Amino acid sequence: MPGQPESAPLGVNGVTAVEPRRSFVSRCWTCICLLLASFQTIIIGGLIVALVFLGLQVQFVTYELVDVQNQVKTLQDSLQNQTQGQIDELSKSVEQEHSLTLYQMAGTFSMLTCLLTMFHMSNHLRNYYEPLIQRKIVALLWMSPIYSLTSFLSLVFPAANSYLAIIREFYEAYAIFTFLSFLIAVLGRGDRQAAVDTLALDASHLQEPTKWLRAWYHPPPETSDMAKANAVITECTILCMQYVFVRPITAIISFVATTIVETQFESSSTHGATTSHSSNWQYFTSPSFYCDMIMNVSIIFAFNGLLKFHHAVDKQLAWCQPFQKFITVKAVVFLTFWQGLLINIVVQLQASDDMVDLDVEQQASQIQNFLICLEMLLFSIAHWCVFPVEEWEPDYRPKKYAKPGIGLKDFAKDVGYIMSSRSDARRYRKRADSYQSTCSDAPESIDLELADDDNYHVDDQQADYVEVTRPDTLSPSSRREIL
Questions:
Q1: Shortest CA distance to 379 belongs to which of 117, 108, 104, 111?
Q2: Residue 424 CB partners (closer than 8 Å, separation 6+)
Q3: Is-contact 220 249, C-beta < 8 A?
């Protein structure tokens, strides 16, 4: 019928012809969907594989980076160790050169000291005028070579410093008493009783002996002048003699303490431990510090005894310069000790925390030994000047030398002469003007000059000196007659 859709043609068994076409499309679409699904699975699998590969690459790069970092760190460590080794070698070479320079300088000073002192001693031995006195001088002159040689050997061989210090300190104690014995021998010409008699002649200027040594005074000092002089000599002898015993004992104690410290340091180093300088005040609690304090007190007593004896005999021994001898001998003993004590304190206070105690002591000892080598040369020259051989010749008279100067007094004298000449010229002009005013009616062509005593006038035309009375006592007519 018109207006209605036409029905599809029927196929076999009543099935239309469109259905086979739809089923084909659906199957195609299904195949496409299956293909798309398989492609999606493949893509996802590929992405998963790519991600796994990328992770493996990242892991490999990480391992490579760690390996490179380890290689860089190893290279840095090797370069640092090599650089540090080069720095250490350079520092060691510089230190060796510095030490070699110190050794050369100290050796030169020591050699010059020994040569000068040996020549000085040979002069005394060749001119042995006063054997009882000059043998004590020779014993004192050994001071500079012994100090210089022991210090030089301690500088070169630091391990032997303690042993050499004992030798030096034993001789130091002996030198103190030898110098006092030398002064007593000079005062009494080798006889102690003669020295007592000499002091007793002027006992009023002697200081009173110390009361706490009264047990050794015999007879008591208040009984007579001779007893007082004997007590003074006994007191000075005891004060010096105590140092002879205290110094070796403290030296041995200090040596034992230093040896124990070195042993502890070596044992700690063997077990892998290091003893650092933990405190700058550690030295003040060590046995060496207490030994130094005991020696300091003993030195003060010995110095007091020598100084008291010097004041007692300064007039009697003025001819042989006792003060100069006192300074040159005592400075070697006392000043070197106080110098070493000051160096120890300064080095201990300035030491850093990472320094080893043994290194601090060696540094202080090195400074002290080098300074002693230098100072002994100066002291040997001073000994040559204050212990001359000529003092002990028969009929010796002290020589008086002119004081050195640069002529300042002469210059000042010349300046004073010039200034006084200027003042004299000013006074002369004033007198001439006064005379000219007095002689105003005299001829102007005549030039008058007055001498210093105003008793002469000069006629420039005849150049003759005429003695006259003073011009102020003459009348004008008389002056005209004279002119």
A1: 117
A2: 452
A3: no
Query: How far is it, in rounded angstroms, from Cα 229 to Cα 207?
Result: 9
Distance separating alpha carbons of residues 163 and 262, to the nearest angstrom: 14
Q: What single letter denotes the amino acid at residue 73?
A: K
Low-confidence ranges of the chain (pLDDT < 70): 1-22, 36, 40, 90-91, 93-98, 261-283, 351-358, 398-407, 422, 435, 439-483
* Tokens, residue 95: 């230190």
Q: Which two tokens stand for residue 38?
A: 């398989």
In this predicted model, what pLDDT tens digit does every residue of 161-208 receive, in sequence order? 888 888 888 888 888 888 888 988 888 877 888 888 888 888 777 888
User: Please, what's the b/e burial string for 401-436 (b: 16 or more CB within 10 A of its CB; e: otherwise)?
Assistant: eeeeeeeeeeeeeeeeeeeeeeeeeeeeeeeeeebe
Decide if 366 contacts 152 (C-beta within 8 A). Answer: no
The phi and psi torsions of 225 (rounded to 5 degrees) equal -65, -35
Helix 161-188 and helix 131-141, axial crossing angle in degrees, nearest 10: 160
Give the number of other Cβ atoms within 10 Å of residue 478's Cβ. Answer: 13
Q: Which of 344, 356, 352, 258 is nearest to 296 (CA)?
A: 344
Question: Helices 322-330 & 357-386, crossing angle to 10 degrees?
Answer: 160
One-letter amino acid of 57: Q
